[in-house]
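Question: what's this shape?

___
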Amino acid sequence: MSISITRENFDQWMLPVYAPAPFIPVRGEGSRLWDQQGKEYIDFAGGIAVNALGHAHPMLCKALSEQAAKFWHTGNGYTNEPVLKLAKRLLDATFADRAFFCNSGAEANEAALKLARKYAHDTAGPQKSGIVAFKNAFHGRTLFTVSAGGQPAYSQDFAPLPPEIRHAVYNDLASARELINDDTCAVIVEPIQGEGGVLPATTAFLQGLRELCDRHHALLIFDEVQTGVGRTGELYAYMHYGVTPDVLTTAKALGGGFPIGAMLTTETFGHVMNVGTHGTTYGGNPLAGAVAGAVLDIVNTRETLDGVKQRHQWLTEQLTALNNRYHLFSEIRGLGLLIGCQLATEHTGSAKQIAQLAATEGAMVLIAGANVVRFAPALNISEEEIRTGLARFARACEKFIAGSSS
């Protein structure tokens, strides 16, 4: 049966938990997308930091199609070669000794929090169950992870929430010190708060959390779902800081658009998750393993990682020049290709409007709350695509300024 699809069908058929753009993308190549009407967009959104290598990258398409022609799925009663190769690649490239694969960042964080409680339960007893997270964090949408995320707007409608989760102020070590004690089993933190406004942690803050966790025998969990897989110019952001976590979660860019997540940890902590303690039907399937392996082939190279730093410079220099004309932003911040533009006070609450105007001009951008315009493009976006996309974004900014002053 052939049916004609329009944007209005979303409002008719789908659970209204999203408010998608008025256009429907149908084809992509690199950092360009085209909608049903053939209009072209430069993609600075990257599927929310997912499309690490843009759209329809030939090496990822090849890895997927070759594995699809072999077999797709067996369930966790069997293992497979692609996921074992992927595990070895990740362990060799990081601090970790053990990997667990799932389908999303939320699932990876769920596994990390369960691991922390299981380890504390086994080694210290049930009283050691406290979790310290941070205000304005985002760790996923499961009940456990949305409770750890310090944004009540995402959790308050689903009470009662899992207990013994408390929230300190991000980048405020004194605030964290007040909450972390001998009953704390884990501290979970984003090296850069993504949804919370693209706020990088300070080195002193992360070092202080490491010391507090060591002192109180708590696991330090780095949520690198958004910052991982080359996004910051290193394979994982912890490598910038010289602070090694006990557990790291990764997803988004790991599959370059194919759903996969992972939790990485050491032998010391991983051994408590014995047979039956956790699992997932689809996690670590051969399709995801093959695609993620191809992503790492490209991303985990000095050429790609250094290229991210070069692209950061191109983007921030051009955004700064744009801001010198329009005076929209009070700050442009971030690492690598995760960049947040904080709106000036007089434009508070306008990030969504600016993003919508950008789309009408043919540039896709993200927001991080009501006051931050976020850029998370493909790690291999070209200089020409950056220049073209920012010219379109500049036209949107000009229209916004004209509209707000009229």
